[in-house]
Amino acid sequence: MKLTSEKSWADLSQERYRWAEKSFVDFLQKFDAQRLIQTTNNASRQVSVILYGPAQAGKTSLILTLLGIRDDRFTELNTLLRGEQDLGTMSTARTYRYRMAKDDFWYFSHRENGATRFNDEEAKAIFASFRQQVEQGMREFDSVDVFLPRRFFDPQQQSSAQLLIRDLPGTHSTNANEQYYVNKLASRYLASADVVLLTGKADSLAFLKPEELDNALLNDWHWQRHRYKIVLTRAYSDATLQRLIKQKRFDKKAMRTFLLEQINTMELGLPENISELIYPVECGHTWLAINAGNDDFTRQCRDLRKDVLQDLLDSLHHATNPLSRLRTGYALPHIIQQQIEVEKEHYEKEKASLRQQLLDLEECVDMYEKRVGRNNANLQNLKAKQQALMHKRDDALNKDFHEYSSASSIIAHYASPSLDALKSQICECRETYSKHWGELLETYQLPLERVPEMSNLDRVLTRLNGYWFDTYFLDKTRREDQNEINEACRKDANCLTALFHARIMVKFDAEEYALNKNINKAERTAGRLVHIVEELLRKMARMQSRLVQRKQEFDVSLADYSQRHRESKKFLSVILLAKNNRAQEIERNVKSPHISRSERLAWLLMYKALNNDFDYVKSLDEESIKVE
User: Fold this and answer.
1) 0.85 cut: is pTM over it?
2) Rounded CA separation 262/206 (Å)
3) Which of 83, 353, 377, 551 can pair with 127 through a Cys bridge, CB separation 3.0 to 4.6 Å?
4) Biggest CA-to-CA distance, the chain
């Protein structure tokens, strides 16, 4: 019988993972279609990498280093990517995925699906507009694939694998909107990356603590060694590490061991083999400064950096293993379900916090409204006292000592009063004035004091006491004395009235000043309390609006997650279908009468390998469940 095929095991092995690669491409078309635009190589050779870590750790510089950007073009490219932002400010305003362009122009996936080319100035303007949108409060963004011009790349560092590196904005941003954006994007993209680089500075290792990573998906990063690496920037420029490199001639193993010891001082308790995941890489402007030297330290850093960087690049390229890569898709339903639970938990906590704040505000409003009521009652009471004081003052100012003068009536009682009668009338008038002076002081609560001198009456009395005789000889003299007594009474009454009015005005002016002061204070307090209540009510309205807005955002987010969860479950059937199709293909070949015995055996071995590979993929799902 003539054989129509003579394939060996070696020939068939080259197609061993074809079913897995096809499944992965189907996954990309569903969940990351932008990854397939401008694909110069097979999509299975692309490596999806995410950098996650605090701001100002040099993540963008690290990306440029990993992509193979030439040192002499680094500053120029970094300036363009910052969108005219100064050094020292966060350079990444949103999430980008950097890739190599097909020529010397810029391309952006959001502009005609990466088909339109841009020059440097146009690209810089696009980056600047992205940052402005984030800072102005826009929250919903799609990731943008940025194709960097080929002229920036070092052709000697290009490999068969194509790196697609996503740069998330730094965690713990001072911009609240940017921080919200980071957390949302991190949860969305961490699950689908081939490799996640936890990136921070060598002299600031606290970013590896779970509470600093600030994302529940990362809490068990050290259990997923195939996906997570630790990249530490500023690794050679740090003063402590510089001294150790110079004194102890640190190689990469020694440095990794030292850095793990420093990490474990934060009570993370990581095992020794985690040191293999640590990559100390100097990059960016600090590396350019070190590399500009020509001493032994510079040469040692060059060798160390070259060795570590090559290890890191090799580990990234190994992430293209078709079976390990299917973990992303196979475990995606569990990861998305975890994201849903995290989102629900976060929403419930935020909702509870907002409601508690509303209750606290309601209590504050109630408390201040009671204070407003008490203050208004006090104000009305003060104004009533003010009115009473005015009436009392008017009443006091109407008091006149003339009404107490009895001299005229006494004198009129006698047709021809004697000298003694006139003297008695003067004494009685003085006593009447004195009595009423004391009564008025007591009535109006004035300080008690001696009755003021009645000089006019005293002068008349003194003159009358100087008479030699007790009898008037002339009626004219008697009438003159009578008139003088009446005038003296009038003058002394005027004087006493003026003195009393002066004293009463001092008293009432002091009381009125104190009352007015308290009234003004109460009115200011009333205005302040009303302003506080109005501000609290506005704050409550904003809080209620935020509660409604957060509910709407949660509903939208939950709907998005639920849709992705439903879609992710379909990927399980895609894998199973691809596996079954491959199994049927193998079965047809095994049963074919036109193959040799050795090839039939090779196909049988291929069938066994397929089952082993599929069992391995299923174990990834079980492992994901255990880890999560």
Assistant:
1) no
2) 10
3) 83
4) 187
Closest CA to 279 of 245, 299, 253: 253
The residue among 400, 407, 373 whose CA lies nearest residue 525 is 373
Q: Tokens 């492992």 belong to which residue?
A: 623
The answer to whether residue 194 sits within a structural domain is yes
> Structurally, how many domains does the chain consist of?
2
Q: What proportion of the chain, given as a percentage, has pLDDT over 90?
A: 7
Return the pLDDT at 539. Answer: 92
Structure tokens at 102: 């097909």
Q: Is 552 inside a domain boundary? A: no
Structure tokens at 44: 């299975």
Q: Give dist(CA 509, CA 389) in Å, integer.
A: 10
Residue 537 has what pLDDT? Answer: 92
8 Å CB contact between 61 and 285 = yes
Tell whether 411 is covered by a domain.
yes
- Alpha-carbon gap, residue 171 to 183, rounded angstroms: 8
CA distance 186 to 195: 13
Q: Give the residue numbers spanning the domain of 95.
A: 32-330
Q: What is the residue whose two structure tokens read 């002081």?
A: 441
Residue 381 and residue 266 share a domain? no
User: What region, left, alpha or beta, does residue 134 occupy, with left being phi > 0 and alpha being psi -120 to 50 degrees?
Assistant: alpha
Q: Which of 27-31, 206-210, 213-217, 486-490 is predicted least confidently?
A: 27-31
On whether the CB atoms of residues 220 and 627 are closer than 8 A, the answer is: yes
Q: 238: left (phi > 0), else alpha (psi -120 to 50), else beta?
A: beta
CB 23 within 8 A of CB 574: yes
